[in-house]
Specification:
The complex is a heterodimer of chains A (about 475) and B (about 240). Chain A is mostly helical. Chain A has 2 domains: about 120 residues, no CATH class; about 260 residues, Orthogonal Bundle (ABC transporter involved in vitamin B12 uptake, BtuC), CATH 1.10.3470. Chain A is built from 18 helices and 2 strands. The longest helix of chain A is centred in the first third of the chain and has 32 residues. Chain A starts with a helix and ends in a 24-residue tail after the last helix. The C terminus of chain A is likely disordered. In chain B, strand 4 and strand 5 form a beta hairpin. In chain B, helix 3 runs parallel beside helix 6. Chain B has a domain of about 130 residues: Rossmann fold. The chains are: A mainly alpha (about 475), B alpha/beta (about 240). At the A-B interface, helix 13 and helix 14 of A face helix 2, strand 6 and helix 3 of B. Chain B: Belongs to the ABC transporter superfamily.
């Protein structure tokens, strides 16, 4: 292993020492109520700490080995960690098993990454690889779509899966909507959730106060949100970059605070409840019909099943998301869509070509807001209860993260990022509060390995030659 | 000037904040002419060209395009009246393909002309045709300049404004670019207003020329006259024929 080994051991030892010093107060012990008036006592978790420090030592050693080209020893260490994590060895908590095994997996991935990326890079550079890549990305989208359409009929479609599917699709739709603003037009919008809130409250209020149905309100909610987009856009769109981001951030907060404090209209922090769900040709999803209504199971003559409502919601959001996608794809081919992309690249050049930058930005803002409004009224109809709590800044941040991590402007990238960022924390719910680790880890890994997003390749909106023969020169 | 002016600039004064960049500039461009504006760094050449485009706006004076006062119009409205601009530093769209860049140039034009217009641009710059699916950012400097000119031509302009097209290019490429500019004027009948630091090439090409110094027009005359003028030779042509 050469003369570097002592250095690596020293480095790993130092890392483990720092981890131990920091961890002793966080992991090592905690104060517990002894009960019976005996006051507080210490509860020691020194074994947990020891396991963590050992894992960090081995992990650090493996990482430096991998970085210095000693791939096989690193892989051996990683596999050993996975085996140790999966073994029935008695550890104080189940989380430690996960921790050890995940550490091992990361190590193995890190060790084989250079090979994998070299091999993939070399394969992608051959002409057949290029053609395959293009065909692959085309087919991948269709495969994803087929999967999404067929999912409710598959045996895994229990309530939990369908709930997760609806949640992910909502974020896919929001991601696609924001992609118009951020990905295509290049306007950094940190307050996107405000338009989502406008759509949600529009449906909640119009349905509970005026008895309007979901399908009537849906276009209205979209228009309302678009109107808010234009209202915000007019004064601020002459700002660029960071300044625009700050103003949109403020706008998002203003909307939330208005919802919180305008008690007469929005019922303040208590929120709005008993919002009716979407209907299918006028029939409602319920076990017993409300007066004057028919249930879907009566209309179709099938037995009532609570899952039907979820499946119906799933198809609604799938349809809405697909409309968002098709609309965006279509816009990219029209002059206004091309002007968005040009504006992202160079605003001065756009003016020199006779494009009105204010109007172009305003359309991007309004259309992006409109889709957030659609998604918002869907959200209200699904949850049946909304409060300002659902529209906090972190939502804007997550949607933005989906767009950025997906690769600005890439539609498939948004889907992948939404599955990762929304799906992972849900799948890892068993990890309890550690699940946010998975969220953070996914973000960090994407940024380390794919700094320009999952899908960073931009597909030209027009190609002169059939796919595969182009790119010469 | 036998032809009526297509562009007439009178008494233009432009400020950057409190600093005055142009002190009452007058100039005329007749239809079908190549007019060049030369001058040292910081003389106000680019400022004048940008002022014609409405950004920054002139504080006083008038700019008349084909009989219409355009002094107060926003940039995109001026462009819509047939003024195409090749901005300083080329400013092509780096992530878009050559073809898409040209498409952006035609964004205001009648789609029916697109095919013939793009064929004309490709005929003028065959290099662009070879690279039409390549991303703009991966082109060489000279190719990017061709693309910027081609993009401007796609809008079928009456008046083409060029800001330092020779900037940062190799001498051989500079000669090619100037040849193309000459052809655009003679074969396509586009009026050209050219701002240049490369006085030698610009004066050889131009029908008429203006010399700008410290925000004022210092000299004017035909390209040949100025090329022979002692003052011009001393100030702008010493140091070789780049």
């Amino acid at each position: 292993m050469g003369p570097r080994l002592p250095l690596m051991l020293k480095d790993a030892g130092l890392t483990a020492f720092v981890a131990a010093a920091l961890g002793i107060f966080i992991v090592g012990f905690r104060t517990v109520d002894m009960g019976g008036g005996k006051g507080l006592g210490f509860d020691y978790h020194l074994v947990d700490l020891l396991v963590a420090v050992v894992v960090i030592f081995i992990g650090r050693l493996g990482l430096s080995m991998a970085a210095n080209g000693l791939r096989w020893p690193a892989i051996v260490l990683g596999v050993a960690m996975i085996v140790a994590g999966a073994s029935p060895m008695k550890l104080p908590s189940g989380f430690l098993h996960w921790f050890v095994a995940l550490g091992g997996m990361l190590l193995v991935i890190r060790a084989i990454w250079p090979w994998a990326s070299d091999a993939m890079g070399a394969a992608a550079r051959t002409p057949s690889g290029l053609a395959l890549g293009r065909a692959g990305s085309k087919w991948f989208g269709w495969l994803l779509l087929a999967f999404a359409v067929l999912l409710p009929f598959s045996p895994v479609a229990d309530q939990k899966t369908m709930d997760l599917g609806v949640l992910i699709l909502t974020y896919v739709m929001l991601g696609w909507g924001l992609n118009i603003v951020v990905g295509l037009a290049g306007l950094l919008d940190l307050g996107y959730v405000a338009f989502y809130a406008v759509g949600a409250y529009a449906y909640a209020l119009l349905s509970t106060q005026y008895g309007l149905g979901f399908w009537t309100v849906l276009p209205l909610a979209g228009m309302m949100a678009a109107l808010f987009g234009i209202m915000l856009g007019f004064p601020v769109l002459r700002l660029r970059g960071d300044y625009l981001a700050i103003v949109t951030l403020g706008f998002g907060e203003i909307i939330r605070l208005v919802l919180l404090n305008w008690f007469d209209l929005t019922n303040g922090p208590a929120g709005i409840g008993s919002i009716p769900g979407p209907t299918l040709f006028g029939a409602v999803f319920a076990e017993t019909p409300p007066p004057g209504k028919q249930t879907v199971s009566e209309m179709l003559g099938i037995a009532f099943n609570g899952n039907h409502r979820l499946i119906f919601l799933y198809y609604i959001i799938l349809g809405l998301a697909l409309i968002t996608n098709l609309f965006t794809q279509r816009m990219r081919r029209l002059p206004v869509g091309r002007a968005w992309e040009a504006l992202r690249e160079d605003e001065t050049a756009c003016q020199a070509l006779g494009i009105n930058p204010t109007n172009t930005k305003l359309t991007a803002f309004a259309i992006g807001a409109m889709f957030a409004g659609f998604a918002g009224s869907f959200f209200a109809a699904k949850q049946r209860f909304i409060s300002p709590e659902s529209f906090v800044f972190i939502e804007s941040a997550i949607i933005l993260a989906i767009v950025v991590l997906g690769g600005m402007g890439s539609q498939i990238g948004v889907v992948l990022a939404a599955v990762l960022l929304i799906g992972l924390p849900e799948w890892f719910r068993d990890l309890g509060s550690y699940r946010m680790l998975a969220f953070g880890l996914a973000m960090v890994l994407i940024m380390v390995f794919k700094p320009r997003g999952l899908i960073s390749h931009r597909e030209p909106s027009i190609r002169l030659h059939p796919a595969g023969s182009g790119g010469g020169g | 000037m036998a032809e009526p002016s297509i562009l007439s600039v009178k008494g233009i004064e432009t400020f950057y904040g409190a600093i005055q960049a142009l002190h009452g500039v007058d100039l005329e461009v007749a239809r079908g002419e190549i007019v060049t504006l030369i001058g040292a760094n910081g003389a106000g050449k680019s400022t004048l060209l940008m002022t014609i485009c409405g950004n920054p706006r002139a504080r006083s004076g008038t700019i008349v395009l084909d009989g219409e006062d355009i002094t107060a119009l926003p940039t995109h409205q001026i462009v819509r009246r047939g003024v195409a601009q090749v901005p300083e530093g080329r400013r092509i769209f780096p992530r878009m393909s050559v073809f898409e860049n040209l498409q952006m140039g035609a964004i205001l034009a009648d789609p029916a002309n697109f095919k013939s217009d793009i064929d004309r641009v490709f005929a003028m710059f065959p290099r662009l045709a070879e690279r039409r699916d390549q991303r703009g950012g991966t082109l060489s400097g000279g190719e990017q300049q061709m693309l910027a000119i081609g993009r401007a031509l796609m809008s079928r302009p009456r008046l083409l404004l060029l800001d330092e097209p020779s900037l940062g290019l190799a001498p051989l490429i500079v000669r090619q670019i100037f040849e193309s500019i000459g052809r655009i004027a003679r074969e396509e009948g586009v009026t050209i207003f050219l701002v240049e630091q490369n006085a030698f090439h610009a004066l050889r090409l131009a029908d008429r020329a203006y010399v700008l110094a410290n925000g004022r027009v210092r000299l004017s005359g035909s390209g040949k006259e100025l090329l022979a003028n002692q003052e011009v030779r001393a100030a702008y042509l010493e140091g070789g024929h780049a």
